[in-house]
């Protein structure tokens, strides 16, 4: 009786959520190597590191105004052994990417920010997160579709487990019989690949659910932190009563970057967005970037845009990875685990293969159902 209920749930939950997980897993496959592919097609501009101070934000703003008068600096990224990357214009206004010599300020190259490759990966990310539907609708479907997929993995394991273990059942459970007819090969692809990838698909699914299901995210943090509650994220705000009383946004940005570099001298790079000039409460955020695949070690400092004073954050957000307790460390690792990049390139390759298997499972499962439901009928009609 238990197996009948389990198998019935696996069948119908799979039919209901199959198209959702097909899109989610397929877009994951296509997105996982996005940074590597973009760097291959549009390589970063390399610069030999020198024992000189790098140009500061106020100088960058001046350079941009000479080239694009009146256009805002959207984002700036400093990286070791690379040119400074400056995003000019707002994201909805065909932004440009300037590459500046970090020591002289010379413009080394100009690029269109939203090229075809970047647009493609934005499209894949959007499909992965929302199925290209309106945000609230798409997120709801993806999040609960992923939850159903977790149940499918568990019920699939129960269905896969043989009632008796012998040579025949071992072969069917662990091996794909490539010499068999295509229907048997399809069943083996579903059962065998599903078994081998189950644990990793569970990890990818659960780490994805953290971003969409608040109850799951809070519950997991509570269970891994000894009963602590996950602090709500709050925007850091500048003191709007200090408008026009400080040294000016250029000097404040210079001071903020200098302090961040002093606090985190071993960072692989630094990035900041220019605060919204129409909002006097907007603050400055300077991010100290760890190397690729170690976003868990990224740190950020926040500053009042008018006075340059550092705005203190809650301990959960302010602590370094080394200082953080276990529950916080696990949460900060979540993004890198989800993409597989916590293990570097081998981890990304594994995530790609596992996502590809995840893409195949709804297809092979549907074919199994279709053959069992309609295959015999079509044979009778032919006879």
From TrEMBL:
Pfam family, one: PepSY_TM
Entry-linked InterPro entries: PepSY-ass_TM (IPR005625)
UniProt keyword annotations, A-Z: Membrane, Transmembrane, Transmembrane helix
TM annotation in the entry: 12-33, 141-162, 193-213, 349-370
Full protein name: Peptidase
Naturally occurring in which organism (per UniProt): Pedobacter steynii
């Amino acid at each position: 009786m238990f197996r009948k209920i389990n198998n019935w749930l696996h069948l119908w939950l799979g039919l209901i959520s199959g198209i959702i997980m097909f899109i989610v897993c397929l877009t994951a496959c296509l997105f996982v190597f996005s940074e590597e592919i973009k760097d291959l097609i549009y390589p970063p501009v390399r610069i030999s590191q020198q024992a000189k101070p790098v140009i500061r934000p106020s100088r960058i703003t001046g350079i941009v105004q000479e080239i694009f008068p009146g256009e805002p600096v959207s984002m700036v990224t400093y990286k070791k052994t690379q040119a400074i990357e400056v995003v000019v214009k707002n994201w909805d206004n065909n932004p440009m990417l300037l590459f500046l010599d970090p020591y002289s300020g010379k413009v080394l190259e100009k690029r269109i920010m939203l090229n075809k490759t970047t647009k493609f990966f934005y499209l894949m990310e959007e499909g992965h997160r929302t199925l290209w539907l309106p945000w609230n609708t798409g997120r709801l479907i993806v999040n609960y579709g992923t939850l159903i997929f977790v149940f499918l993995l568990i019920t699939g394991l129960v269905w896969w487990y043989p009632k008796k273990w012998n040579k025949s059942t071992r072969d069917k459970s662990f091996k794909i019989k490539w010499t068999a007819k295509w229907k048997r090969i399809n069943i083996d692809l579903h059962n065998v690949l599903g078994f081998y990838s189950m644990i990793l698909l569970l990890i990818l699914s659960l780490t994805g659910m953290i971003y969409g299901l608040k109850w799951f995210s809070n519950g997991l943090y509570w269970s891994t932190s000894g009963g602590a509650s996950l602090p709500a994220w709050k925007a850091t705000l500048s003191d709007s009563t200090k408008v026009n009383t400080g040294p000016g946004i250029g000097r404040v940005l210079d001071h903020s970057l200098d302090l961040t570099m002093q606090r985190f001298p071993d960072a692989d790079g630094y990035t900041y967005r220019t605060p919204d000039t129409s909002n006097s409460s907007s603050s400055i955020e300077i991010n100290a970037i760890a190397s690729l695949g170690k976003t868990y070690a990224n740190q950020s400092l926040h500053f009042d845009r008018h006075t340059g004073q550092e705005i203190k954050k809650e301990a959960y957000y302010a602590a370094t990875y080394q200082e953080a307790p276990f529950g916080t460390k696990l949460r900060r690792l979540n993004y890198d685990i989800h993409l597989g990049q916590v293990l570097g390139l081998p981890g990304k390759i594994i995530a790609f293969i596992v996502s590809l298997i995840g893409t195949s499972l709804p297809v092979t499962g549907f074919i199994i159902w279709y053959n069992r439901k309609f295959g015999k009928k079509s044979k009778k009609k032919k006879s």
